[in-house]
Specification:
Bound molecules: zinc ion
Largest sheet: 5 strands, antiparallel
Radius of gyration: 15 Å
CATH topology: Peptide Deformylase
Shape: globular
Structural class: alpha+beta
CATH class: Alpha Beta
Strand order of the largest sheet: 1-2-3-6-7
Helix content: 25-40%
């Protein structure tokens, strides 16, 4: 196990779409284990491949561990197969954009389909924070960031912080 460096905005790798995972091998299992360790150490509740420079369709998430009930998931080639009309607005943080919380509106419930590390295809209905977390991580796999989804006044407020990050050394 190893902690991986987390890429920071505006690293261009955060903007590239990912390739699907086509083989589950020891390298991929190691990557997933390292991503979970890195996520917990950050500390965060989700981490997507591009955030550690792996442009592959996978993310890890554990929306409940900070409340004392760990529920780690490794999601390969995740996709949303259904989404509610009802929406929820939550403040989202991103380990790649520290210090720039984003108020984002998304479907309140989704059905997520993914492949686990043993190659089994799973589908689960996610609600509450888990639904937000999965959608945030899935966006990363398409090169989308939460700062793309905030409304205009919030974007103006965030832009000063983003400029500082873009000018900074890393
Ligand atoms: Zn993020």
């Amino acid at each position: 196990m190893a902690l991986l460096p987390i890429l920071r905005f505006p690293d261009p790798r955060l903007r590239r779409p990912c390739l699907p995972v086509t083989r589950i091998d020891d390298d991929l299992r190691q990557l997933a284990a390292d991503m979970l360790e890195t996520m917990y150490a950050a500390p965060g509740r989700g981490l997507a491949g591009p955030q550690v420079g792996a442009l592959l369709g996978l993310f890890v998430m554990d929306p409940t561990w900070k409340e004392g009930t760990p529920s780690p998931r490794v999601c390969l080639n995740p996709e949303i197969v259904a989404a509610s009309d009802e929406t929820a607005t939550r403040e989202e943080g991103c380990l790649s954009i520290p210090g720039v919380p984003c108020l984002v509106t998304r479907p309140a419930e989704i059905a997520l389909r993914w492949t686990d590390l043993s190659g089994v295809v799973l589908e689960e209905r996610l609600t509450g924070f888990a639904a937000t977390c999965a959608q945030h991580e899935l966006d990363h796999l398409h090169g989308r960031l939460c700062i793309d989804l905030i409304d205009e006044p919030a974007r103006v407020a965030a832009s000063a912080a983003l400029r500082v990050m873009a000018a900074g050394p890393g």
